[in-house]
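Can you give me the bound-state structure? Components:
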Amino acid sequence: MSYFLEALHCIFVLRYKAKVMDKVNCYHCGDDCDSTIIHFEEKTFCCNGCKTVFEIFSTNDLSCYYDLQQAPGATPKEVSGKYNFLENPTIAERLLEFDDGKTQVITLYIPHIHCSSCIWILENLHKLNPAVISSQVNFGKKTARISFSSKDLTLKDLVLQLNKIGYEPYISLEDYAVEKKDVNRTLIYKLGVAGFAFGNIMFLSFPEYFEVNEYWLDQYKYVFRWLMFTFSLPVVFYSGNDYFLSAYKGLRSKLLNIDVPIALGISVLFIRSTFEIIFDLGTGFFDSLSGLVFFLLLGRFFQQKTYSFLSFERDYKSYFPIAVTKIHTDKKEESIQVYDIKKGDRLLIRNEELIPVDGILISGKAFIDYSFVTGESDPSEKESGEKLFAGGKQLSGIIEMEALKSVEQSYLTRLWSNSVFEKDKASTFKTLIDSISKRFTIAVLTIASLSAFFWILYDQSKALNVFTAVLIIACPCAIALASPFTLGNLLRILGKKKFYLKDASVIEQLSKIDTIVFDKTGTITTSKVNAIEYEGIPFSEKEAVLLKSTLRASNHPLSRQLYNLLSPHNILTLDEYKEHLGKGLEARIDQQEIKIGAADFVQNSKVKESTSTAVHVSTNDNYKGQFIFHNVYREGLSDLFKTLNEENELAILSGDNEGEKEYLKQVLPADTSFYFNRKPADKLDYIKSLQQQGKKVMMIGDGLNDAGALAQSDVGIAISEDINVFSPACDAIMDASKFRFLSQYINVSKKAIKIIKWSFLLSLLYNLSGLYFAVTGQLEPVIAAILMPLSSISVVVFTTIATNVLGRKLS
Amino acid sequence: MSVIYVLLTISIIVAVVFFIAFIFSVKSGQYDDAYTPSIRMLFEDELVKTKKDKIVSNSQEKQS
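Here's the bound-state model for the whole set.
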């Protein structure tokens, strides 16, 4: 009876849904409640997991969680045994930040942290579990630092507790290998020192700006001057030391970079000012000196926008688990660190776990998703005795395997020994500033020498004065600021549009691109939705119900996908159900039988050989038809390619088979090149060969298999459905929903370079007017003190306004 | 000694004190996370829910 009522209710809800066209969303996670709706305390939930989290929160008086943000939660995942390795003391010790036997502190990376509710609930963990002493969230980094008393709560239980409320931490091999890094705060210190000195020197130099020949001023000005000198010491020798270092490095590699004239300007300012106060010739330029350094550092600080929750330097370590379960000969299970895996070890891989080493499948039903490694989207089925490669993800049930290699020697991990991953792209790239600064430096030195030469003939006493004055006034402060402020601001604007760049230099690289290479699977296709097409005799109502009910019982990934896409039906209890490993499903209700699975399993010899994945169905031994799984291409793909094709060469470089080639040829511009069945190393070599032809290559990919190509390319963009999920090492990470705006982003970066050039012109105007004072020998400290900040500020204002105008046009 | 020296010394001492305070605040990690504290300060109201606290203690009594 109750079953009947529930079914009736279900039908009613579905009808209601269809009528109102308003979807019921889960109160906890906000997902659509498609197949099942659970009602609890007048709220709707999409699954039992979400309901349980709600129960936990409401019984602990933490339901405020739902008031701060609507539907903030995540569905807790099944993790049985996944965290057993945390019981291993050596692993736990590596992860813990602090441990005195009583209290333990750990910082956990929790990808789900995304809103104020998350902060609130995680910082109130002690209410859920009294053993937690305190917890502090870093929202930017998506980490929680939790201290807990180890007597009452083990590390494993803490992690399980977090998982129970939907905040599963992500623990990977990377956490194990990397020593805890110190945060680099040097720039803030330097900026602080420069700002402190700048402000104080400004105060102290104020009286002399007006040159009131007053008895009081004349008497004390020496004290003021020496105080200014003292304040300027840390500015020159601490805050400004980067510029000297960089100029020295540049000169040694015979490169006149922008830091050369800056370093020259700083040292001339300092030396001349010191001379002036020693010989009582004037006040010196300490105010301009400290102001210059302060503004320059400010520019650096502004450019240094980092997305701390993203990482652009990931390698396989951040995908790999920290430990696996090893099975000893006496059947005992033990968690061991993956680096300790030796050839011949028996390993247990659970559902959804990653295979850490190459090996041979011993027993169990292996259904491996290699999309990370090869780009092939369809999971492949393996039988015992077959080879398994590291990086594959087991999708159904538990398997046992024997390791053939160690972690470092496995197929996938060897890719990282390629020298591409050690090269620093930024250092080999010649920026716009670099090319301008060479001419600029030469020009400045020429003007300075010429005017000095003129004054030697005319009035020798002024020659040195003029020479130094030219170097001071021509110090390219505004030029040096133009680029960081333009690029830094654009970096922020693009970040808001969900296009995250590693650093500002990527924008310059982007503007030079002439060849774009796309990966196929996951890049131009979406991994979220799979289109399923049915070919064959239509199902009767009874058969449709049977099909859906049968699929529901199976955990096979294809069954799950098919189940979610089929229209809702009543779920009936099956009288008989059988799953045949690697073949398909068989089920019966009353007299109706159904077979779902591979072509030979459902007894059909007529089926054409096809490259796409298909699931065949027969009822009562009558062949009905097949469901064909298609890749779904991203929205606006064809338009994007058309726009990009105007200025760039395009190519598709896929690890997948040629199944979709004909379709792609129709949709994409005619001169797009296609390459299929490429291994990761082939992709890297292809990019390299393009670069050897003098092309600037942009690679867009998503998986670990693209990692080499992304690193080799001039700009490597990783595309990601969910920014929190890891993407391979790259220069930029793009939210998948923004894929079709790629051409706009390239355009914007081209325009940004133009803005920089305009602001160069602007600052040159200031320099020229300053040069007039310098060459004629009339440069007073007060003129320098006005001109320098004025030129800097106007350049900053110009670039900020211009980039914001650019940003407004972006969609 | 002229009063100007006294004033100068005092003003510089004050400036240096603030400078040192700045250095310490950077060192303690105050500038590492500039976003979370801005949200955290809004939470206080939810934390002091006296009525709810009673329910917590009640339910704990029941359990024990």
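A couple of observations. Residues 48-64 of chain B have pLDDT under 50 and may be disordered. Chain B has one domain: 3-63.
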